[in-house]
Every structure is written in structure tokens, then in C-alpha cells.
Specification:
Blueprint (H helix, E strand, L loop, with lengths): L1 E2 L6 H9 L9 E4 L7 H7 L6 E4 L5 H11 L4 E2 L7 E2 L3 H10 L7 E9 L5 E5 L7 H4 L4 H4 L10 E2 L1 H6 L10 H12 L2 E12 L5 H4 L3 H7 L1
Parallel strand pairs: 1-2, 2-3, 6-9
Antiparallel strand pairs: 4-8, 5-9, 6-7
Length: 219
């Protein structure tokens, strides 16, 4: 969970991670140099040993994610933004899906719910309502169609060491830049279950970062 001045929603994100039915997980909170007088840190530390909390100098979301990946102990990585939530079966369903695949070095991804600032569901993005399974398992298809939402992913951690990490020079498109590489170079598998909630609100970096549109155009 990368976070910067995230005391507004961080508690919900952590609670949703700790509520996973699949228990063989660790939850890392990476504080990217928050400047909110310790509010973000105080929330994370209230969970004690249930989460691993780290604070680093501010470097952007990509740097926080890269830091967390290098600290993690597991074989698979799942990114949860501090303002998003997982439904309880998110990791269990994806691990079950992975266990049915011959190649365990596969990236699993799926649909998601849109929620508002109050946490109310406003829309559900069901990928199989839009495209076929064959299309969605075609390299790059989901990325180019804007259907690859990173917080739905379960990623083999060795993919980062084999292909690359998030580009820390990209403040708001570091995710899609990396998915473009991943979806071309490792097996992917769509999971039609919807287990991630993506929150839309006015404080998002993609809405407030002045260079976001230019960065998107360049990508």
C-alpha cells in the first residue's frame, strides 16, 4: 500500500487487506514522505505487527511501489492504492485461479467496482461484458483498451527483476508504462471476478497533477 498524506482513506485500505480470506499474506504500508504532521503514520502504526510500516523520502508512487517490492517476502505482489479497497476474497480467488494454471509465472487481472468518496459503489466494470476471454488474454489488448487496472493484479514478483520496475520519473503513468512491458513479455490470464474497488475522488493525483495530460500523451 503506497501512501502519501493518506489519512483520509488509509484505514479502509488496510482493513480490506487484513480481511482477506487468504491468510498467507503480508501487508506493507509504504509512507512516501507524508507531510501531514504524522497523521498517516499514526494510522498505520495502530495496526502494530499486523502490517509492516516503512517511511521513505518522498519520491512519488513509483518509488514507493519499488521500495515495497524490494522489501516484500512473498512470491506474488498485489498493489492496493491507499484510497482503494479489496473485497475479502480477492487474493483467495486469484490464488485459486493461479493454481489451475500450468505456468505459475502468470499475471492475473480482472474487473473492478467504481466507488465514490463515501465508499458507495457507482458502477461495476465487468470485463466479460465488454470483451471476450480470448481478446482479454491477448498480449497488450487490455492495456491498449484501458482495461488493465493495476490494483486488480496478482503479479509474480520475479517479473520485476526479469523485466523491470516502475519508472520513477513518471509521476502518474508509471503503472501503464510498466504494464506495456509486462503484458508483452509474460503470460496473462483474465479473471472475471470483481474483487477490487477503485475510488474516484477529487484529491487523486491524476486529477491534480499539472503534467498528467502531457505525460499521458507522451506515453
Amino acid at each position: 500500500i503506497p501512501v502519501y498524506n493518506g489519512s483520509n482513506y488509509l484505514r479502509e485500505a488496510i482493513d480490506s487487506a487484513l480481511s482477506q480470506t487468504y491468510q498467507n499474506i503480508e501487508v506493507l504500508v509504504i509512507d512516501d514522505g507524508s507531510t501531514d504532521n504524522g497523521a498517516t503514520e499514526a494510522i498505520a502504526r495502530k495496526y502494530g505487527d499486523s502490517v509492516r510500516y516503512f517511511c521513505k523520502p518522498n519520491g512519488g508512487c513509483g518509488s514507493a511501489l519499488n521500495f515495497g517490492i524490494r522489501q516484500m517476502k512473498g512470491e506474488y505482489f498485489s498493489w492496493l492504492s491507499h484510497d482503494d479497497r479489496y473485497l475479502p476474497n480477492k487474493i483467495q480467488r486469484q490464488v485459486d485461479r493461479l493454481c489451475k494454471l500450468e505456468n505459475k509465472n502468470t499475471l492475473i487481472y480482472g474487473g473492478y467496482e467504481l466507488i465514490n468518496a463515501a465508499g458507495e459503489t457507482t458502477h461495476t466494470v465487468r470485463l466479460n461484458d465488454i470483451f471476450t476471454e480470448e481478446q482479454l488474454n491477448t498480449p497488450l489488448f487490455a492495456v491498449l483498451e484501458g482495461m488493465a487496472y493495476g490494483c486488480t493484479f496478482l503479479i509474480p514478483v520475479n517479473s520485476f527483476y526479469d523485466i523491470g520496475f516502475f519508472d520513477e520519473s513518471l509521476p502518474t503513468t508509471q503503472d501503464y508504462a510498466l504494464w506495456y512491458e509486462f503484458f508483452r513479455k509474460i503470460p496473462i490470464c483474465v479473471d472475471f471476478e470483481v474483487d477490487t474497488q477503485y475510488r474516484l475522488h477529487e484529491e487523486q493525483d491524476t486529477k491534480n497533477h499539472t503534467g498528467h495530460l502531457e505525460e499521458c500523451n507522451n506515453l
